Amino acid sequence: MVTEAAVRQALREVMDPELHKSLIDLGMIRQVEIDEERVHITVALTVMGCPMREQITSDVRAAVGAVAGVSEVTVEFVEMTDEEKRRIGLSPKKDQEGAAVDYNKIKHVVAVMSGKGGVGKSLVSGLLAVALRRLGKEVGILDADITGPSIPKMFFGDGARLSPSPLGLVPLSSKTGIKVMSINLLLPDENQAVIWRGPLISSAIRQFWGDTFWGDLDYLIVDLPPGTSDASLTVMQSLPISGVVLVSSPQDLAGMVVRKAADMTKQMHTPLLGLIENMSYFECPDTGKRYDIFGPSHAEEIAMRIDVPLLGRLPVDPRVAVACDAGNIEDLAADAFQPIAAHLLQTVEDDQP
Ligand SMILES: Nc1ncnc2c1ncn2[C@@H]1O[C@H](COP(=O)(O)OP(=O)(O)OP(=O)(O)O)[C@@H](O)[C@H]1O
Ligand SMILES: [Mg+2]
Q1: Structural Rg of the chain based on CA atoms
Q2: Which atom of ligand 1 approaches the CA of 314 most closely?
Q3: Which atom belonging to ligand 1 lies closest to the Cα atom of 226?
Q4: Given ligand 1 and candidates 112, 114, 122, which is best to mutate, with the most ligand atoms within 8 Å of its CB?
Q5: Domains in the chain, please, with CATH?
Q6: Which ligand is the nearest neighbour of the Cα of 123?
Q7: pLDDT digits (tens, 9 = 90+) for 4-43
Q8: Whose Cα sits closest to atom 12 in ligand 1?
Q9: What is the value of pTM for the model shown?
């Protein structure tokens, strides 16, 4: 005798292929009909055009077909009613908070900021994600640079795209399992310029937070656009930032721009985790000798002035630029960066038990 309870129990094992949550928990099993040995399952999708229908069908068939006494399984798809969407926390008209917030469990959100452009924020964001992943953490990167997104190239090279998902935005996973969300993964052509005004940019960033199914993360790294712009403000106001990492270069002579950025975080009551000086020196591969090619470092002095720890100094390394251009950031040994990441980790986890 086949029971509905046994069928539902079997369906607990069937995961949505993109969200990695059971169809039962997602409230997607609307009806189970049993006619002796035959079982008919009605699956409710948030949108009918779900690209995962075939996989869901075969997974449901396999799981229910394995229940004792079942000889035939049929699957039917329907669209969720507004009430069903509401019950699982998907408001039919997406609210301020976003559709995915209830599903996401994100322990620490770390934003990477700089006073000016081109100092290596995106590189630091990428290396930080890679380093944390190597330490066994679940990691995501939210590319909050809407007009100059550079994270996808570092992880996927050119041309990577997200496929649409029925429930919302699902980040793209890198080869080591880092989840990436960026406007460049959504544009029809990655060379297309995004010429949006502030409010639209802010709303895209909020969607990358609230409508993106990040799942369980230990760390979400947010790569900010340069400076103390609208977008940085949005991130600080609408995301629960655990802390900010400041990146500077030796060319920030007196550190004025760094101090401005630090001041912004203070005004927003966001903790500053520390300073990283990038392109600090060049180490000659033949002799191991260090050259201060951009002049002497002021990192220690600046860090002291803004009263944050100096997390470390990163050398100029041509191999880094090459790997980042080719989508191979995860293959870098990044020896210079690992102690910086370890230092940062200690700072974050000491702060938040
Ligand atoms: N330590 C380094 N060694 C070699 N190349 C580097 C280093 N740091 C950054 N670069 C290169 O410099 C360029 C700028 O770096 P990146 O994009 O990380 O800066 P950014 O601060 O994010 O810039 P933007 O303000 O435009 O967002 C990139 O091509 C990057 O590969
Ligand atoms: Mg950048």
Answers
A1: 24
A2: 1
A3: 25
A4: 122
A5: 4-87 (3.30.300.130), 105-351 (3.40.50.300)
A6: 1
A7: 999 999 999 999 876 778 899 888 899 999 999 999 999 9
A8: 120
A9: 0.75
The structure tokens listed for 198 are 């502030």
Q: In whole angstroms, give the CA distance from residue 211 to residue 134.
A: 27
Ligand nearest to the backbone CA of 281: 1
